[in-house]
Amino acid sequence: MATSLISRQLVLSLKKNLWLSAPGCRHASKAAAKTQLEYDYDGPSMKTAVPGPRSQALTKQLGEIQNVGAINFFCNYDESRGNYLVDVDGNRMLDIYTQISSIPIGYNHPALLKMMTNPNNHSAFVNRPALGILPPENFPDKITESLLSVAPSGMTRVQTMACGSCSNENAYKAMFIWYRNKERGQSAPSEEDISSCMINQAPGCPDLSILSFMGGFHGRTLGCLATTHSKVIHKLDVPSFDWPIAPFPRLQYPLEEFTRENQQEEARCLEEVEDLIVKWRQKGNPVAGIVIEPIQAEGGDNHASADFFKQLRNIARKHGCAFHVDEVQTGGGSTGKFWAHEHWGMDDPADIVSFSKKLLTGGYYHKDELQADKGYRIFNTWMGDPSKNLFLAEVLNVIRRENLMEEVTRSGKALMTGLYELQGRYPGVLSRARGQGTFCAIDVCDAATRDKMLLQARDKGVLLGGCGDRSIRFRPSLVFKEEHVHLFLNVFNDVVAKHK
Ligand code: PSZ
């Protein structure tokens, strides 16, 4: 009885919030709001400069409690829907950044809200378990229905975790454990292994390394941070490991004009990877794993060819290093494939694939042999959140039902066409338009102009992100349609025109 009361109240408030009192909503009737994007607004609507007075007051209030240096503005998530984020001053903005690329199907998708009203789901939302020891009955089914239904090629095992850093951190540990077990063969850890590990000394805490790439971002926890090389602000004052860092290719655009140069650049980077692997082995700090993003995101949307990744994967295999593909930002469909590594066309693309953001839960898929040999070796209290697997199963249903992968390809094409056109029109301001699906970026002549343009676009009702030194990146959710692309291009054209 209590449950039905809660669910009735939820239904009523959802109806009130979503269907009946949605100012600017294209379809306001309950009957019409049942399908895909019909709950979206029809455009941005700006009432104040951003941040407006209410945001500023809240920032001041929170400033008494926390550092607020990174806060953009405060949001009204009740009123936000589809592609539009509404702030506390009533500004409604087309969101092409989506909480750093982590909203899969827009704000307040009806299919997800509906899950909240289903009494069968209530206990999953209310009781967060210590998943590693006391999982709920439906956990294996839900993980099969959600994460395993989109497992990368060759992987049938997945470990859930809380966030992206936590996923990578544990993936690194899995690679080290795998590497040491390989070295030990059948024998158990020695007495020396056991006693030395407790005081951070070898051989129990072995000298092993992870090879990463300049410009890469893999998180901010200590292990991950040792493989993150995108911005000083992430790294300064924090001790780190002496692990090898290889150059990531710097491709020249347009690609078709620089085929030979780009091939040479990729060959140079691959050669450097092999040299580093050999050097670090000689130094007594062998490379247990290589970690790489399919598109370096935070570092500036740096792409490399499928051939580069194929060769890198082969180098990892040849030298006995695990190959970890970090799909925290690229995973979940925005490149036009569910996983960006699918663009490489390989049957055996990786040993580990980590994810978070659009997948709602963090975690990593892995080959069977990268399964830690004992419980509690890869472990923490929550090990993810099963309520997120429920949502993810529904997100995947929506992606299939609404053909969102096709939609991404279509919107991505329109976006790239528009970006090419704009960089043709404003060659002094824009260059290097690049992307896969809607995972796109363009460079601006300098950092100061880029930063100004981001703020000007925001005041006109379009939210974008920066990345690298002077790039603008596009990270819409999967419900970003061609009409939103055109809306964006109009606003962006006005913004760029001011700087020509
Ligand atoms: O400044 C930051 O901490 C940011 S801004 C964007 C991210 C982090 N992205 C997170 C991220 C990622 O893009 C890749 C490729 N790998 C790992 C991470 C870390 O994920 P979280 O932030 O969930 O720990």
Overall description:
The protein is α/β, with parallel strands linked by helices and 500 residues long. Helices cover 39% and strands 12% of the residues. It contains 16 helices and 14 strands. It has helices spanning 2-20, 53-63, 98-101, 110-117, 119-126, 139-145, 164-184, 191-197, 222-225, 232-235, 259-282, 306-318, 386-401, 404-425, 447-459, 482-497, and strands spanning 84-86, 92-95, 157-161, 209-213, 245-246, 287-292, 322-326, 352-355, 362-366, 430-436, 439-444, 462-463, 465-467, 471-474. It has a 7-stranded mixed sheet, with helices on both faces. A hairpin with a 5-residue loop joins strand 1 and strand 2. It is globular, with a radius of gyration of 24 Å. The termini are far apart. It binds ligand PSZ. The site of ligand PSZ has 16 residues, from helix 7. Ligand PSZ binds at residues 100, 163-165, 168, 217-220, 293, 297-298, 326, 328-329, 356.
Question: Structural class per helix/strand content?
Answer: alpha/beta
Which ions, cofactors or small ligands are bound in this entry? ligand PSZ
Order of helices and strands: HHEEHHHHEHHEHHEHEHEEEHHEEHEEEH
Strand numbers in spatial order across the main sheet: 3-9-8-7-6-4-5
Spans where pLDDT lies below 50 across 5 or more residues = 1-37
- Sheet-strand content, in percent, reads 5-15%
The counted number of beta strands is: 14
Q: In angstroms, what separates the terminal alpha carbons?
A: 65 Å
